[in-house]
Amino acid sequence: MSHAARWRAMHPRGAVPAPAPASGPAPSLTLAQALARALAMPTSGTASVVLRRIDSCVYLRSAGALSCLRNCVRSTLVRNASTIAQTQRDRVARGLRWYSSSPLPPGVSQEQPRARIHGNGSSQSQSQSQSAGRRRSSNSAWRLLHVHGRKVWRRFRRPWGALTVLNSNTSFRRILEFVKPQTNLLIAASLCQFVQTMTTMTFPAAAGKIMDMIEPPHPELMDQLAMVAWGLVALFAVGCVAASARVTLMTIVGERISRRLRIDVFAKILGKRMEFFDRRHTGELVNRLSADTTVISRVLTDNLSRTVRSSVTFSMAVAWLLVYSPKLFLISAMVLPPTAGLAVLAGRIVRQLSRQYMDALAASTAHAAEKISGIRTVRLFGTEELEITRYAKKTEDVYQLAKNTGIAEGIYTGALYFVSQMSLVGILYCGSRLVMDGELSVGTLSAFTMYAINLGFSLSNLANAYGQFTKAQGSAMRVVEILDEDPILHSERNSAGVCLVPPYKARLEFDKVSFAYPMAPQNLILQNVSFTVEPGEIVALAGASGSGKSTITYLTARLYDPQQGMIRFGGHDIQTLNSDWLRSQIGVVPQDPLLFDDTIAKNITIRRHAAHLSGTPGTQQEHVDANADAHLRHICDLATCSDFIEKFPQGLDTLVGERGSSLSGGQRQRIAFARSLYHKPRLLLMDELTSQLDAENEAMVSYAIQSLAHEEGVSVLVIAHRLSTLRRADRILFLADGAVAEQGTYDELSQRRGLFRGYVEASQKQRFHPTSAQ
Ligand SMILES: Nc1ncnc2c1ncn2[C@@H]1O[C@H](COP(=O)(O)OP(=O)(O)OP(=O)(O)O)[C@@H](O)[C@H]1O
C-alpha cells in the first residue's frame, strides 16, 4: 500500500485540513528534520512552501500532530514576516495617519459642481446602435449595376427624381453642422477658386482671338497681340495667388472639420453605455475615429473646391458657347442627361460599396489592433502564422470590395469619357461645316472647341464630385451613428442626482437584485441577491469562477443597472445619486487593473487631473502641487508600493509603458490600489487585489485594508479566491447559482458542511496538490 493510500485510509475526507497527496512517493522526514528545514527556510514569502513540506512529512501525519504543527508554524512564520516587514508596517501606519488626518487630496473634489446638476436624472434612453450585421453578400459591381440601374431609371422617369436623390442624404445634413463654423473660411476659399477658374476660362477666348489675328496674318495687329499676351500673364499671376490661397484655406478648413469631428466622436464614444463596448471592437471604433472622419473632411473640402471650379467653368463655358453659336451649343448640351444619369447610378453603387468597404476595413483594423496589443499571448502560443492568415482573409474582403468599387468607378469613368468625346466629335463635325459655310471663323471654332472641352471636364468633375460625395456618405453614416446614439454620459452627469453631504453612513445594500448582461438578456447572472456591507466592515465575496462576483462590483459602480431590485448606498437608491459623485465615493481595483501609458504618479493621481479639467475650483497652484505631492507619497505608503517605486531611478516619474507593461503584475495591482485610495473613498471594491502578490505583500495589503476598514470606517467588499484573504474578512458571502448561498464568518462557514466548506477543501487540495485537482 502506498503512503498516500495508507494516509487516506487513516484519515477520512474532511478529518484534517490538508488532504494527502494523490500520487508520488512522500518524503519520509522525521519531525526534527521537518522543523530543521522549516526553520532553515528564509521567511520571506515561504510560508506555503514550509507548510507544504510539513504536510508531506509522513512521520508527522502518522503522529497525528500535523494540524497542530501547521498552525504553530504558520503563526511563527507570519510573526517573522511581520517583524521583517516592520518598516512596511510603519509605512502603512504613516499612510493611514495621513489618510485619516489630511483633507481630500488637492484638486480632487468628491462633489460635483452644483451647476452641472440639472435635468431629468432618470431619463436614460435605451436606444442602441442597430448597425451591426450588415449584409455583405451583395457586393458584386455587376449585380449592383443591375439593381441600381433599375432604381435610377424608375427615379429618372420623374423629372424631380435627381433632386430627391440629393435630398435623401440625411447623414451628410448632420455632418454639415460641423462645416457651419467654417463658413467664412469656406467662402474665402470658394472666392479664390472662383477667381482662379475665371482666369483659366479667359484663355480659350484669348486663344481664339489670337488665331483670328494670325489666320490670315494681320501684321498691323502685332501691338494688340503683345497686349493680349501681357494681359494673359497678369491674369495668370492673379490666378496663381488665388490658387495658393485656395489650397491653404481648404486644407485648414478640412483639418478643422476633422478635428471637431474627431473630438465629438471620441467624446461620444467615451460616453456610451457599457453594452455599447460589449458589442464593438476597439479597432473598429478607432477606425471610425480616424479613417472615416478623414474621408468625410477630405471629401467635403476637396469636393467643395471641385464643385465651385466646375460650376464656374460650366457656367462660363455655357455662356461663351451660346455667344459663339447657339446651334453648336445644342449639340454639346446633348451630353447633359446621360452624364447626370450616369453620375446618379454610379453614386448609388459606390455609396453602398464604400460603406461595406469601410466596415471591412474597420474589421481588419480591429483584428490587427487586438493582436498587436496582445502580442505576448500571440507569441507565447505561437499563433503568428494563424493571425497573419486571418488578417490576410480580412484584408482580402477589403480588397474585393475595393476592387468592386474600382470596377464600378471604372465603368462610370469610361462611359462618361465616351459621352463627352462623342459630343466633341459632333462639335468638330458640325462646326467644320459651319466654318465651310462661312458662318464661323476658324478662331471661333477653336475657342468653341476649347470651351466645349472645358464643359465636358466640368460636367465630369461635377459627376465625380457627386460620386465622391456618395462614397463619403458611407463614412458619414458610420460617424453619425455614433454621434446620434444615446449620449449616456451626458444624461447621467447632468442628472438631478443627489450628492450626499458627509458625514453619511457609507452602507452598501443589495436588495433583491437580479441582473443579466444586455448582450445575453436570457442569462441571469444574479437572481434576487441581497446583502449589506456596513461601514467599517470587510465583506468577502467568494464563489466559483463565473458566479457573478465581479458583476456585483460593476453594478455597485453603476457600469450597468440591474433589471430588478435596488442597490442602495448611504441609504439611497444609487440610480437617484449623481453617478460622478457615487464613483468619487468608491475606490475600485478591477480584476485586471489597467494602467495608462504615463508616469506612476499620473496614473495614481488620475482622478485629480480629471477634476482639474472639469473645472473644480482650486487654491493657489503651488500650494496645491506641494500638498498633492505629500498626499501622493503617503498614499503610496498606505498602498505598500513605496518600496518598489523608490528602487526605480525615476521614482514616481517612471513611465509604466502601454497598459503598465513595464511593471510586474503585483506592482500594477499595488499602483491600482494606490489609485483607488487617492481620492479617499468611503467604499472599497477590491477584485482579486492580491491575486498576483507574494505572501508577504499580500499580508501587507490586507493589513492596509483592515486598517482602513476598522480604523477609518471604510466599507470594503473584497473578491478573493485566496483562503488567506477570505480568512481576514469580517464576513463572507458565498455566491452560487446567481444567489448568495451562504454567509457568515470564515470559521462559521467552514464548520458548516456546506458549499463553502467544499470550496475551501477544493482550494486547499488545489493549493497543495495542483496536479491532483485537475
Ligand atoms: N460583458 C458581458 N456580457 C455578457 N456576459 C458577461 C459579461 N461579463 C461577464 N459575463 C458573464 O457573467 C458571468 C459572471 O461573470 P463575473 O465576471 O461576474 O464572474 P466572477 O465570479 O467574477 O468570475 P471570476 O472569479 O472568474 O472572476 C460569467 O458567466 C460571464 O460569462
UniProtKB/TrEMBL annotation:
Positions with biased composition (Low complexity): 119-132
InterPro entries recorded: AAA+_ATPase, ABC1_TM_dom, ABC1_TM_sf, ABC_transporter-like_ATP-bd, ABC_transporter-like_CS, P-loop_NTPase, Type_1_exporter
Compartments (UniProt record): Cell membrane
GO CC terms in record: mitochondrial inner membrane; plasma membrane
GO molecular function: ABC-type oligopeptide transporter activity; ATP binding; ATP hydrolysis activity
TM spans (from-to): 183-207, 227-253, 307-323, 329-350
Domain of life: Eukaryota
Any Pfam family the entry gives: ABC_membrane
UniProt keywords, alphabetically: ATP-binding, Cell membrane, Membrane, Nucleotide-binding, Transmembrane, Transmembrane helix, Transport
Region (Disordered): 1-26, 99-138
All residue ranges annotated as the ABC transporter domain in the record: 508-762
SUPFAM superfamilies, per the entry: ABC transporter transmembrane region, P-loop containing nucleoside triphosphate hydrolases
Membrane topology field: Multi-pass membrane protein
ABC transmembrane type-1 domain location: 187-471
Protein name: Probable ATP-dependent transporter ycf16
Lineage: Eukaryota, Rhodophyta, Bangiophyceae, Porphyridiales, Porphyridiaceae
